[in-house]
């Protein structure tokens, strides 16, 4: 427990300069981009007179210098205030709290499904490398991984929503359904079935191949030969020795792919019209809403740091030597 607390403390301290660098670089990139929220608003209403433009820039604080706006934003962050969304005319923090749970629910379900089933199939394939089962699973995973996510999502939507009419075609839940409790949970699950399946099938193939490759490498190590010489059953060798040691690179891939799903959710949420974090980022870019986009990038960075912290904890559980070296350093 103490080792875990020390690891969390070290990660928390090291994440502070990382977040400051991300905020500073993101602010500079947004400043160097042409146009702002006022320009996007004028385009949507068909233009405006100079007095309107000047009043809008003053109300949004865009008439100040870059350093003044940066200092104002940093001081607001110190008070946990992420600013005001120009496009939605709402606080940024409220928008993030509203949209983020939908994406986390979709990503968490897809990651759990892909990791669980991909690991199981990878163990089945890696238990006997070169067998017919291994070749069939490896070929199937390669085909799945080669399919573009947007195309897979559209095909699943056409098949299960348009043709068979088994699942809803879009949204996070039925609008104004009045459902509560288990009925609402079942409705949300039905709406998330297709986007979760789309994300999970692609990453399932990746996890399967990584697990299979890791097990094929572990089979050649000396301690596996020693376990065979002791007369241990093949099932025990596969589960207790080969699969456990092959999990380390898979856990690393889990952390990388979980963070990448935040970017991939933009396409999936657009296809299935899910009001999530990725779609909010798309709306912020199209509306040139710099405060909202800054909040989205900062929140994404925090999520990536938290995911990597969980991966470090898993590493220390799978291999105590890793956790001991981290805590001691």
Automatic annotation (TrEMBL):
Domain of life: Bacteria
Gene Ontology annotations of biological process type: transmembrane transport
Keywords: Cell membrane, Membrane, Transmembrane, Transmembrane helix, Transport
Gene3D superfamilies tied to this protein: MetI-like
Keyword Transmembrane: yes
Location in or out of the cell: Cell membrane
Membrane-spanning segments: 104-124, 136-160, 188-208, 246-272, 292-311
Main localization, broad class: membrane
Every ABC transmembrane type-1 domain range: 100-315
Pfam families according to UniProt: BPD_transp_1, BPD_transp_1_N
GO cellular component: plasma membrane
Membrane topology: Multi-pass membrane protein
Membership in a protein family: Belongs to the binding-protein-dependent transport system permease family.
Protein name from the UniProt record: ABC transporter permease
Organism name: Rhizobium daejeonense
């Amino acid at each position: 427990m103490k080792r875990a607390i020390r690891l969390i403390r070290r990660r928390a301290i090291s994440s502070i300069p990382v977040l400051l660098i991300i905020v500073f670089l993101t602010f500079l990139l947004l400043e160097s981009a042409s146009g702002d929220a006022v320009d996007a608003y004028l385009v949507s209403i068909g233009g405006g007179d100079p007095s309107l433009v000047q009043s809008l820039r003053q109300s949004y604080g865009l008439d100040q210098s870059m350093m003044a706006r940066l200092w104002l934003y940093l001081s607001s962050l110190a008070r946990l205030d992420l600013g005001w969304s120009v496009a939605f005319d709402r606080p940024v923090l409220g928008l993030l709290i509203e949209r983020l749970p939908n994406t986390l629910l979709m990503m968490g379900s897809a990651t759990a499904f892909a990791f669980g089933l991909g690991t199981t199939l990878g163990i089945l394939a890696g238990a006997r490398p070169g067998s017919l089962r291994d070749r069939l699973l490896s070929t199937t995973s390669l085909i799945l991984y080669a399919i573009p996510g947007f195309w897979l999502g559209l095909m699943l939507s056409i098949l299960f929503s348009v043709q068979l009419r088994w699942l809803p075609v879009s949204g996070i839940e039925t609008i104004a359904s009045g459902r509560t409790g288990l009925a609402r949970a079942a409705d949300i699950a039905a709406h998330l079935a297709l986007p979760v399946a789309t994300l999970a099938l692609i990453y399932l193939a990746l996890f399967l191949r990584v697990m299979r490759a890791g097990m094929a490498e572990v089979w050649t190590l000396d301690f596996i030969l020693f376990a065979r010489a002791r007369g241990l059953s093949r099932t025990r060798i596969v589960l207790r020795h080969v699969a456990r040691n092959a999990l380390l690179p898979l856990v690393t891939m889990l952390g990388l792919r979980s963070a990448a799903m935040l970017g991939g959710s933009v396409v999936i949420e657009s296809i299935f019209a899910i009001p999530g974090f990725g779609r909010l980022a798309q709306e912020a870019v199209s509306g040139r809403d710099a405060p909202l986009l800054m909040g989205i990038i900062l929140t994404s960075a925090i999520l990536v740091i938290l995911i990597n912290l969980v991966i470090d904890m898993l590493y220390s559980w799978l291999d105590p030597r890793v956790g001991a070296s981290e805590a001691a350093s």
